[in-house]
What does this fold into?
Amino acid sequence: MSDTWFLLLSAALGAGALNALAGGGSFLTLPALFQAGLPPIAANATSTVAVSPGYLGSTLGFRAELARMPAGLLWKDSGICALGGLAGAGLLLVTPAHLFVAVVPWLLLFATAVFAAGPWLIRRLKQRADAPPGPGAAWRRAVGLAAVSIYGGYFNGGLGILLLALYQATGVSDLREANALKNLNSLVLSSVSVLTFAWAGQVHWPEALGMAVAAIVGGYLGAALTRRLPASWVRAFVIATGLFMAGKFLLR
It folds into this structure.
Protein backbone atom coordinates (compact mmCIF):
# COMPACT_ATOMS: atom_id res chain seq x y z
CA MET A 1 0.00 0.00 0.00
CA SER A 2 1.40 3.41 -0.96
CA ASP A 3 1.90 6.13 1.61
CA THR A 4 -0.97 8.11 0.06
CA TRP A 5 -3.47 5.27 0.39
CA PHE A 6 -2.31 4.60 3.93
CA LEU A 7 -2.97 8.27 4.75
CA LEU A 8 -6.42 8.27 3.13
CA LEU A 9 -7.63 5.02 4.66
CA SER A 10 -6.27 5.92 8.09
CA ALA A 11 -8.03 9.30 7.93
CA ALA A 12 -11.30 7.65 6.86
CA LEU A 13 -11.02 5.02 9.59
CA GLY A 14 -10.50 7.77 12.15
CA ALA A 15 -13.32 9.84 10.65
CA GLY A 16 -15.77 6.95 10.94
CA ALA A 17 -14.79 6.43 14.56
CA LEU A 18 -15.07 10.14 15.36
CA ASN A 19 -18.49 10.42 13.74
CA ALA A 20 -19.72 7.47 15.78
CA LEU A 21 -18.25 8.91 18.98
CA ALA A 22 -19.06 12.59 18.70
CA GLY A 23 -18.82 13.92 15.12
CA GLY A 24 -16.11 15.88 13.34
CA GLY A 25 -14.94 13.20 10.90
CA SER A 26 -14.53 15.67 8.03
CA PHE A 27 -11.75 17.34 10.05
CA LEU A 28 -9.67 14.30 9.07
CA THR A 29 -10.88 13.33 5.59
CA LEU A 30 -10.73 16.75 3.92
CA PRO A 31 -7.12 17.60 4.93
CA ALA A 32 -6.02 14.06 4.01
CA LEU A 33 -7.45 14.45 0.50
CA PHE A 34 -5.76 17.84 0.18
CA GLN A 35 -2.50 16.21 1.27
CA ALA A 36 -3.00 13.48 -1.33
CA GLY A 37 -2.99 16.12 -4.05
CA LEU A 38 -6.67 16.32 -5.01
CA PRO A 39 -7.87 19.71 -6.29
CA PRO A 40 -9.70 21.69 -3.57
CA ILE A 41 -13.27 21.33 -4.87
CA ALA A 42 -12.76 17.66 -5.74
CA ALA A 43 -11.28 17.04 -2.28
CA ASN A 44 -14.37 18.44 -0.58
CA ALA A 45 -16.71 16.50 -2.90
CA THR A 46 -14.80 13.25 -2.36
CA SER A 47 -14.75 13.80 1.40
CA THR A 48 -18.55 14.21 1.37
CA VAL A 49 -18.96 10.89 -0.45
CA ALA A 50 -16.57 9.16 1.95
CA VAL A 51 -18.47 10.09 5.11
CA SER A 52 -22.03 9.86 3.70
CA PRO A 53 -22.71 6.11 4.31
CA GLY A 54 -22.71 6.68 8.06
CA TYR A 55 -25.84 8.83 7.80
CA LEU A 56 -27.87 5.90 6.47
CA GLY A 57 -27.06 3.69 9.45
CA SER A 58 -27.80 6.52 11.86
CA THR A 59 -31.18 7.16 10.22
CA LEU A 60 -32.16 3.50 10.33
CA GLY A 61 -31.33 3.49 14.02
CA PHE A 62 -34.10 6.05 14.63
CA ARG A 63 -36.84 4.35 12.58
CA ALA A 64 -39.21 4.17 15.55
CA GLU A 65 -38.95 7.91 16.30
CA LEU A 66 -39.44 8.85 12.66
CA ALA A 67 -42.49 6.58 12.36
CA ARG A 68 -44.22 8.53 15.15
CA MET A 69 -43.85 11.89 13.36
CA PRO A 70 -46.34 13.31 10.85
CA ALA A 71 -45.42 12.18 7.34
CA GLY A 72 -46.23 15.62 5.93
CA LEU A 73 -43.72 17.28 8.25
CA LEU A 74 -41.00 14.78 7.34
CA TRP A 75 -41.58 15.32 3.61
CA LYS A 76 -41.55 19.10 4.04
CA ASP A 77 -38.29 19.12 6.01
CA SER A 78 -36.67 16.64 3.63
CA GLY A 79 -37.72 18.72 0.62
CA ILE A 80 -36.19 21.86 2.14
CA CYS A 81 -32.98 19.97 2.92
CA ALA A 82 -32.80 18.50 -0.58
CA LEU A 83 -33.13 21.94 -2.18
CA GLY A 84 -30.70 23.48 0.30
CA GLY A 85 -28.16 20.71 -0.24
CA LEU A 86 -28.47 21.18 -4.00
CA ALA A 87 -27.96 24.94 -3.67
CA GLY A 88 -24.94 24.49 -1.40
CA ALA A 89 -23.33 21.91 -3.67
CA GLY A 90 -23.97 24.13 -6.68
CA LEU A 91 -22.42 27.08 -4.87
CA LEU A 92 -19.32 25.00 -4.14
CA LEU A 93 -19.00 24.01 -7.80
CA VAL A 94 -18.97 27.64 -8.97
CA THR A 95 -16.56 28.78 -6.25
CA PRO A 96 -13.06 29.43 -7.67
CA ALA A 97 -10.56 26.94 -6.27
CA HIS A 98 -8.28 29.62 -4.81
CA LEU A 99 -11.21 31.23 -3.00
CA PHE A 100 -12.33 27.90 -1.53
CA VAL A 101 -8.80 27.22 -0.27
CA ALA A 102 -8.82 30.64 1.42
CA VAL A 103 -12.22 29.97 3.02
CA VAL A 104 -11.50 26.41 4.25
CA PRO A 105 -9.60 27.33 7.45
CA TRP A 106 -12.39 29.70 8.50
CA LEU A 107 -15.00 27.05 7.80
CA LEU A 108 -12.98 24.60 9.90
CA LEU A 109 -12.74 27.14 12.72
CA PHE A 110 -16.49 27.79 12.53
CA ALA A 111 -17.26 24.06 12.56
CA THR A 112 -14.89 23.56 15.51
CA ALA A 113 -16.51 26.42 17.43
CA VAL A 114 -19.98 25.00 16.76
CA PHE A 115 -18.83 21.57 17.91
CA ALA A 116 -17.19 22.97 21.05
CA ALA A 117 -20.27 25.01 21.96
CA GLY A 118 -22.68 22.25 20.95
CA PRO A 119 -23.73 20.94 24.40
CA TRP A 120 -24.13 24.46 25.82
CA LEU A 121 -25.96 25.65 22.70
CA ILE A 122 -28.39 22.73 22.73
CA ARG A 123 -29.12 23.17 26.46
CA ARG A 124 -29.86 26.85 25.93
CA LEU A 125 -32.04 26.29 22.88
CA LYS A 126 -33.93 23.43 24.53
CA GLN A 127 -35.49 26.03 26.83
CA ARG A 128 -37.22 27.46 23.77
CA ALA A 129 -38.33 24.00 22.72
CA ASP A 130 -40.09 23.56 26.06
CA ALA A 131 -42.08 26.77 25.53
CA PRO A 132 -45.19 26.88 23.32
CA PRO A 133 -44.29 27.81 19.71
CA GLY A 134 -45.07 31.43 18.90
CA PRO A 135 -46.46 32.89 15.69
CA GLY A 136 -44.24 32.34 12.69
CA ALA A 137 -42.48 29.34 14.24
CA ALA A 138 -43.02 27.22 11.12
CA TRP A 139 -41.48 29.88 8.91
CA ARG A 140 -38.49 30.31 11.23
CA ARG A 141 -37.94 26.57 11.17
CA ALA A 142 -38.15 26.46 7.36
CA VAL A 143 -35.80 29.42 6.85
CA GLY A 144 -33.31 28.12 9.42
CA LEU A 145 -33.39 24.65 7.91
CA ALA A 146 -32.78 26.07 4.43
CA ALA A 147 -29.78 28.08 5.65
CA VAL A 148 -28.22 25.12 7.49
CA SER A 149 -28.82 22.85 4.48
CA ILE A 150 -27.07 25.26 2.11
CA TYR A 151 -24.12 25.31 4.50
CA GLY A 152 -24.17 21.50 4.69
CA GLY A 153 -24.21 21.15 0.91
CA TYR A 154 -21.26 23.51 0.66
CA PHE A 155 -19.22 22.28 3.63
CA ASN A 156 -20.23 19.36 5.82
CA GLY A 157 -18.32 20.22 9.01
CA GLY A 158 -20.47 20.83 12.09
CA LEU A 159 -23.68 20.04 10.21
CA GLY A 160 -25.09 17.63 12.80
CA ILE A 161 -24.74 20.08 15.69
CA LEU A 162 -26.33 22.89 13.65
CA LEU A 163 -29.33 20.73 12.70
CA LEU A 164 -29.76 19.45 16.24
CA ALA A 165 -29.60 22.97 17.66
CA LEU A 166 -32.08 24.22 15.06
CA TYR A 167 -34.64 21.55 15.89
CA GLN A 168 -34.28 22.14 19.61
CA ALA A 169 -34.73 25.88 19.03
CA THR A 170 -37.89 25.46 16.96
CA GLY A 171 -40.02 23.30 19.20
CA VAL A 172 -38.68 19.72 19.10
CA SER A 173 -38.27 19.16 22.84
CA ASP A 174 -37.58 15.41 22.70
CA LEU A 175 -33.85 14.93 22.10
CA ARG A 176 -34.30 11.54 20.43
CA GLU A 177 -36.81 12.98 17.99
CA ALA A 178 -34.45 15.90 17.27
CA ASN A 179 -31.64 13.39 16.66
CA ALA A 180 -33.87 11.36 14.35
CA LEU A 181 -34.70 14.46 12.27
CA LYS A 182 -31.05 15.51 12.27
CA ASN A 183 -29.90 12.14 10.93
CA LEU A 184 -32.66 11.86 8.32
CA ASN A 185 -32.03 15.31 6.89
CA SER A 186 -28.24 14.92 7.01
CA LEU A 187 -28.77 11.81 4.85
CA VAL A 188 -31.07 13.68 2.45
CA LEU A 189 -28.90 16.71 1.87
CA SER A 190 -25.64 14.72 1.71
CA SER A 191 -27.20 12.35 -0.85
CA VAL A 192 -28.26 15.29 -3.02
CA SER A 193 -24.79 16.82 -2.65
CA VAL A 194 -23.13 13.54 -3.63
CA LEU A 195 -25.32 13.21 -6.74
CA THR A 196 -24.54 16.82 -7.69
CA PHE A 197 -20.80 16.36 -7.25
CA ALA A 198 -20.91 13.08 -9.18
CA TRP A 199 -22.84 14.70 -12.05
CA ALA A 200 -20.23 17.48 -12.17
CA GLY A 201 -17.40 14.93 -12.31
CA GLN A 202 -15.78 16.22 -9.11
CA VAL A 203 -15.70 12.91 -7.19
CA HIS A 204 -12.53 10.82 -7.32
CA TRP A 205 -14.27 7.47 -7.04
CA PRO A 206 -11.37 5.12 -6.14
CA GLU A 207 -10.49 7.32 -3.18
CA ALA A 208 -14.14 7.96 -2.25
CA LEU A 209 -15.18 4.30 -2.24
CA GLY A 210 -12.05 3.08 -0.48
CA MET A 211 -12.43 5.72 2.20
CA ALA A 212 -16.17 5.00 2.56
CA VAL A 213 -15.41 1.36 3.38
CA ALA A 214 -12.77 2.42 5.90
CA ALA A 215 -15.21 4.94 7.43
CA ILE A 216 -17.82 2.22 7.89
CA VAL A 217 -15.25 0.04 9.68
CA GLY A 218 -14.22 3.05 11.77
CA GLY A 219 -17.84 3.72 12.66
CA TYR A 220 -18.25 0.15 13.91
CA LEU A 221 -15.09 0.43 16.01
CA GLY A 222 -16.12 3.88 17.24
CA ALA A 223 -19.46 2.56 18.43
CA ALA A 224 -17.60 0.02 20.55
CA LEU A 225 -15.29 2.70 21.93
CA THR A 226 -18.22 4.83 23.10
CA ARG A 227 -18.69 2.35 25.93
CA ARG A 228 -15.10 2.77 27.12
CA LEU A 229 -13.88 6.32 26.49
CA PRO A 230 -15.13 9.33 28.49
CA ALA A 231 -17.10 11.64 26.21
CA SER A 232 -15.06 14.64 27.41
CA TRP A 233 -11.85 13.03 26.08
CA VAL A 234 -13.39 12.45 22.68
CA ARG A 235 -14.76 15.99 22.47
CA ALA A 236 -11.38 17.44 23.47
CA PHE A 237 -9.66 15.37 20.76
CA VAL A 238 -12.13 16.51 18.07
CA ILE A 239 -11.74 20.17 19.07
CA ALA A 240 -7.93 19.88 19.12
CA THR A 241 -8.01 18.21 15.69
CA GLY A 242 -10.21 20.95 14.25
CA LEU A 243 -7.97 23.71 15.61
CA PHE A 244 -4.82 21.95 14.38
CA MET A 245 -6.21 21.44 10.88
CA ALA A 246 -7.48 25.02 10.68
CA GLY A 247 -4.08 26.31 11.78
CA LYS A 248 -2.36 24.12 9.21
CA PHE A 249 -4.52 25.53 6.40
CA LEU A 250 -3.96 29.11 7.61
CA LEU A 251 -0.21 28.58 7.49
CA ARG A 252 -0.52 27.36 3.90
User: Anything to note?
Assistant: The chain has a mean pLDDT of 83. The chain has one domain: 3-251.
